[in-house]
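In this section we walk through a basic example: taking a raw amino acid sequence and producing a predicted 3D structure, encoded as discrete structure tokens. The instruction is simple. Fold the sequence below.
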Amino acid sequence: MSLEPIEPETALELYLADKENELAKASLKAHKYRLNHFIRWCDEQDIENLNTLRGRQLHQYRLWRRNEGDLSPVTEKTQMDTLRVFVRWVESVDGVEQDLSEKVLSPSITPEQNTRHEILKSERAEKVLAHLEKYEYATIDHVSVALMWHTMMRIGGVHALDVEDYHSDEQYIEVRHRAEQGTPIKNKEDGERLVALSNRLCRLLDDWLVDQRPDVTDDYGREPLLTTVQGRASKATLRHCVYRWTQPCRYEGECPHDREIVDCKARSRNHLSKCPSSLNPHAIRRGSITHNLHNDMPEKVVSDRANVSPAVIEQHYDRRSEREKMEQRRDYLDDL
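The resulting token sequence is shown next.
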């Protein structure tokens, strides 16, 4: 096979252009971020033509990236797996020797290593929501956190909701994929679904719409469900809501980390995530899924409602102990 010269930067540009219709925007951005490290390494190594790339150099890059980035095994695996996909694509355009992608090694990790443990436990969620209901009722912070907890939705799904997606009388919301209008959701059309709402959550949403919601549209003329005076609440705004209200000092008035609350830098908007106790939106989703499983919601119902497969629930979301699962199964023995 005759290789055709190709510069690392050009290969990355062509790869991203080719994957644009295949990958979600967030995934494409993640690929670009990870592969930019490889392009930077190529520049440092004076590699101007990927035709010369060999397996030993790929291993050298792996060690360089591990040490330079102080990567965990999970992050290292993610970055090297993305590199393998990229090298396989370069093979397809005769830019590197065939089967070079098989020489891109990544660490083997256990299911335990591949599972994140950050979770908003139900007792803590109750405290947060009780505080918001009493002191921040029907504000965007209250509505955002309540929606995430009660529906198990991803932040992208909450961000994508419009006023017309909320059906107050029938008490449900529609989760819809509208990527061409700036609101894609995970799993695209396969992630579209109807999510039933409780009486309490519907009262909150009704009060938000009547009393608090800024009456604005987004850049596409749509009426977002969650808004600020600037338009649709951004994902960053929603994350800040979660970071802020999972700080214990906000709802308990005390800092478990022995910091002076009035002087704590983590209370400022740009540093909210620096609090050791603050959680990200996915911790709410993980906690809500676990909470519903604890309360005997059938796994199939949780799977459909949260738009996540039973296998993924088992590996990434279900934080029940094996003993807790056994005791819940015991309740069904009388029916046998």
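Looking at the output, two observations stand out. The two ends are 66 Å apart (CA to CA). Strands lie at 166-167, 172-175, 193-196, 227-228, 231-232. In the next section we compare this with other chains.
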